[in-house]
Write a structure and sequence with these properties.
The complex is a heterodimer.
Chain A lengths: L1 H25 L2 E8 L4 H14 L3 E8 L3 H13 L7 E5 L3 H7 L11 H4 L4 H6 L1 E2 L2 E2 L2 E7 L1 E5 H6 L8 H15 L5 E4 L6 H12 L6 E2 L4 E2 L4 H14 L13 H9 L3 E6 L3 H5 L11 E4 L13 E8 L6 H11 L2 H11 L2 E2 L2 H5 L1 H6 L1 H12 L9 H17 L5 H23 L1
Parallel strand pairs in A: 1-2, 1-3, 8-11
Antiparallel strand pairs in A: 3-13, 4-5, 6-13, 6-14, 7-11, 7-12, 9-10
Helix pairs in contact in A: 9-10, 9-18, 10-18, 18-19
Chain B lengths: L2 H33 L18 H8 L1 H33 L5 H8 L1 H4 L2 H11 L6 H7 L13 H29 L3 H9 L4 H29 L3 H6 L11 H11 L3 H34 L1
The chains are: A alpha+beta, B mainly alpha.
Chain lengths: 429, 295
């Protein structure tokens, strides 16, 4: 018994020796890429492999965090705050660059990411990566809230995709009546108390001519009528009526599941949902879907929230050049093309939208370019996370209670947000 | 024991004390230190000034914190009372001699042995609004009547409470069982000779003698329930409408999501103080009871 353990230990030690031996032989530089759990990990792994083939001197180590922007944010901030040099490149949500740049965790990319290079990208994501005139991240893919619908059902009942929220409801109720399927609901979206709720609710508010923050006056406008009315609409007409009450606990995956199981007529999600909804292996409604801009309230323009992910380089990294080479590769025309075709992610480079194969295989993408160009960012502020927590609290309290006093709740939240805005303004002076 | 031995004993204690200081003492001190400062990670320009008791004052005025405190108290009160009751019943059951008792005792401990994150994930699936087992058991295939347990403020907190009771009743049972086993059999035999029925035997022998064990179980459970975090973090992350935003989760969000280190620390320090006071009260009561028992 004892000898077998001994021999096993020797074996393991030997194995380690071999492994380290291989490392020393090639002497490539390791860079650590911290990212979150994406929907298509294989596509990413292939891209990273390709990068390593082209750059034999660099080896990319992947570290994967949970599929939750908020949890991932907590991990990234803890590591950067502690000046952890073991991360070189990391993926950033579109709402983080101001916070990270202000905290001094991001390498200033202005000298590397030149003006003429930036012009090749869409303006929204570039603006999101710019803080006080300097650029801190390179946009990888873009997202915007999109409106998915069952094209087969709309055709069957002779409807055009709805342009207003009311139209969506009236079409939906007619389809529900005709289909007579108790499992079918009208609308599937994200109403859980988390970051996604902010996007979904802001879209309702924007499409009613409202805002949450007036950036010029640095003032909270959450308690004003357009915002309050839009939130009331969601509570009274959507939750528990057009959407199952369970949507109060839905993030993107759960709400998409409802749609691709054929249990919802309309669905709000990011661009990545397109390839999943049309993948016959995962979706029951493949080929029966259409996608367009979200509806609006009468007399107002539709709006969608800007999302998407960027690469940032850790200020404390010891491999700036290798990390930059990796970022350049991952955001190149070729890589963005792969991500578009294989993972359904919307490119941030204009040129990819002109690519023949992309145009042929993803005809919907080009149609969205105008929407992507106009997608609205959530407040760009170093204290965005605090503002978002207050917004999430307000939205969830407003829509989860059947008789919530929305104007009063909005007043309380608005005052808190105003305080946070003033706090954020203190450092910008 | 010679004086030399004493030195050796003290010397042998050093590693344990060092580990405790490093991994328990230091973080607690750090938290207390942070709670007296304004430290916002995203705004390093503000530095980290000493603000005295400002964070705690703010905490007392914060309606969200008050709400979180209330939820936590409801959670603690319901879970501990049910856990002690169910624990007592389980303990009485597995204290009896019957075939397969050993196996049953082991089975009872399974829920407690599963890591909380895993069991929380399991309960999240059980309570799922579309394919959850609980809905299926109650409503069968009538999916239109399925209840979205975790999406409604009232039921979400109840779901958390049920998951916690399932998980930790067996721990209470274990502690109470230990108390039951020290009761000598002669007492029961003597009572039987005197003609006491089983109910009387319970009230006059079992109950007074397991009270210290019950108190210990109560102490452990209250303290543990006050620090509830992982269950809420996995099952609901605080929602809907803050209905499951227990104190520790609120503190976590302040610290790790918003980067408000000082304020978040003030929340954890407050939880620490509440638990400390509870522990002192309990220990004094238990101490008295043990004295009485000995006398």
């Amino acid at each position: 018994m004892r000898t077998s353990i001994k021999s096993r230990i020797i074996l393991i030690l030997g194995l380690f020796y071999f492994m380290t031996g291989v490392v020393f032989a090639g002497e490539p530089t390791d860079i650590v890429f911290l990212t979150w759990k994406t929907s298509q990990p294989k596509v990413w792994a292939n891209l990273i492999e390709e990068f390593q083939r082209e750059n034999p001197g660099i080896r990319v180590k992947l570290q994967v965090a949970p599929h939750s922007s908020t949890q991932y944010h907590a991990i990234v901030t803890q590591r950067l705050k502690n000046k952890d040099a073991s991360v070189d490149v990391f993926f950033m949500d579109v709402i983080w660059p101001p916070e990270f740049a202000n905290a001094g965790w991001l390498l200033d990319l202005t000298p590397r990411f030149k003006e003429q290079q930036r012009a090749k990208f869409l303006p929204g994501p570039i603006a999101a990566n710019t803080y006080r005139g300097k650029i801190y991240g390179v946009p990888c893919y873009l997202a915007a809230g999109l409106f998915y619908y069952r094209s087969d059902l709309l055709r069957k009942y002779g409807f055009e995709p709805p342009r207003t929220w009311d139209e969506m409801l009236s079409q939906g109720y007619e389809i529900l009546k005709g289909e007579n399927d108790p499992a079918l609901s009208i609308y599937s979206a994200q109403f859980k108390q988390y970051e996604g709720l902010v996007c979904d609710m802001m879209e309702f508010i924007w499409s009613n001519g409202g805002t949450v923050i007036d950036p010029k006056a640095n003032r909270s406008t959450l308690a004003e009528p357009p915002a309050v009315d839009a939130v009331s609409f969601v509570r009274d007409r959507i939750i528990g009526k057009a959407s199952p009450r369970g949507a109060l606990n839905y993030e993107e995956p759960e709400s998409l599941e409802l749609f691709i199981q054929g249990k919802a007529v309309f669905h709000r999600n990011w661009p990545y949902a397109w390839s999943i909804a049309n993948n016959p292996k995962r979706s029951r409604i493949a080929g029966k879907t259409g996608v367009g801009t979200l509806p609006a309230f009468p007399g107002h323009a539709p709006a969608s929230a800007l999302g998407g992910w960027q690469f940032g380089i850790n200020r404390w990294s010891r491999h700036y050049d290798e990390a930059w080479r990796f970022v350049q590769f991952m955001t190149s025309h070729q890589s963005q093309r792969t991500l578009a075709l294989k993972a359904g992610l919307a490119p941030t480079r204009r040129s990819v939208y002109q690519d023949l194969e992309v145009r042929k295989k993803m005809p919907h993408l080009k149609a969205f370019l105008p929407a992507f160009e106009k997608a609205r960012p959530r407040p760009l502020s170093p204290v965005y996370q605090m503002i978002s927590q207050e917004l999430q609290r307000f939205f969830s309290r407003a829509i989860a209670g059947r008789k919530s006093n929305i104007p009063a709740l909005a007043g309380v939240a608005s005052k808190k947000i105003q305080k946070l805005l003033e706090l954020g303004a203190m450092v910008q002076r | 024991m010679t004086p030399g031995d004493k030195k050796l004993y003290l010397f042998l204690l050093v590693p344990a004390i060092l580990v405790l200081l490093l991994f328990v003492g230091a973080p607690i001190c750090q938290s207390i230190f942070l709670s007296f400062h304004r430290d916002i990670i995203a705004l390093p320009q503000l530095k980290t000034p000493f603000v005295g008791l400002d964070n705690f004052g703010e905490l007392l005025r914060d309606p969200v914190a008050r709400h979180s405190f209330l939820i936590t108290v409801i959670f603690v009160a319901t879970t501990t009372s049910f856990e002690l009751l169910i624990g007592l019943l389980i303990a009485l059951l597995i204290n009896h001699r019957f075939p397969g008792r050993g196996a049953l005792r082991a089975c009872v401990l399974i829920p407690w042995a599963i890591p909380t994150v895993v069991s929380a994930q399991m309960w999240r699936f059980l309570f799922n609004d579309a394919y959850g087992m609980i809905n299926y058991v109650i409503f069968g295939v009538e999916s239109a009547r399925y209840i979205p347990w975790l999406a409604m403020p009232g039921t979400a907190l109840s779901a958390l409470i049920i998951a916690d009771i399932w998980k930790t009743s067996s721990f209470a049972a274990l502690l109470i069982l230990a108390g039951l086993q020290v009761i000598p059999d002669e007492l029961y035999r003597a009572a039987r000779v005197d003609g006491a029925g089983s109910w009387r035997r319970f009230w006059h022998i079992t109950w007074p003698l397991i009270r210290p064990a019950l108190l210990v179980a109560l102490l452990f459970r209250t303290i543990d329930a006050f620090r509830v975090f992982d269950l809420a973090f996995v099952m609901t992350p605080g929602g809907p409408a803050d209905a499951t935003n227990v104190l520790q989760l609120y503190g976590y969000k302040k610290m790790f999501v918003e980067g408000w280190m000082g304020y978040g620390s003030a929340i954890s320090v407050s939880v620490f103080l509440i638990v400390l006071v509870l522990a002192i009260i309990y220990l004094r009561t238990i101490g008295r009871h043990l004295m009485e028992a000995r006398a």
